[in-house]
UniProtKB/TrEMBL annotation:
Keyword terms, alphabetized: Hydrolase, Metal-binding, Zinc
Name of the protein this chain belongs to: Cytidine deaminase
Coiled-coil regions, chain positions: none
Entry function: This enzyme scavenges exogenous and endogenous cytidine and 2'-deoxycytidine for UMP synthesis.
GO biological process: nucleobase-containing small molecule metabolic process; pyrimidine-containing compound metabolic process
Binding locations of substrate: 47-53
A Pfam family matched in the record: dCMP_cyt_deam_1
Length: 137
């Protein structure tokens, strides 16, 4: 099942806390993500930039890599937070594809700086996607 209201608020709070740890001296665009596993654990991540720009990593991928490194491969939801103001933060294409590796049937909470959010299914953010099962065709 999906997280209940209290669980959603915790996921959103953990993404805001992760955003505060972002290392973004070049873009000045902090992003935080919090990933809820099927087992109910939360892994958070922030973006980490590098002077060699292509070596930076997004918050969403940081959270996923942390979860994977701890043995989790089944996810229920992710909250993403930034300081974008009037716009909802959305994951980049690379993050959407990494998220897709672990299924399409989970919720993504996209937030604005004021804490309001909308919920999208991963399958809606990356329609007609390519995943592990396509390698077996």
């Amino acid at each position: 099942g999906q997280p209940h209201s209290e669980g959603i608020q915790l996921l959103l709070r953990r993404s805001r806390e992760a955003k505060n740890c972002a290392y973004c001296p070049y873009s000045h665009f902090p992003v935080g993500a919090a990933l809820l596993t099927a087992g109910g654990e939360i892994f958070s991540g922030c973006n980490v930039e590098n002077a060699c720009y292509s070596l930076g990593v997004c918050a969403e991928r940081t959270a996923i890599q942390k979860a994977i490194s701890e043995g989790h491969t089944s996810f229920r939801a992710m909250a993403i937070t930034s300081d974008m103001g009037d716009n909802f933060i959305v994951p980049c294409g690379a993050c959407r594809q990494v998220m897709r590796e672990f299924g399409t049937d989970w919720n993504i909470y996209l937030t604005k700086a004021d804490g309001t959010y909308i919920v999208k299914r991963l399958e809606d953010l990356l329609p007609l996607s390519f995943g592990p099962e396509d390698l077996k065709k």
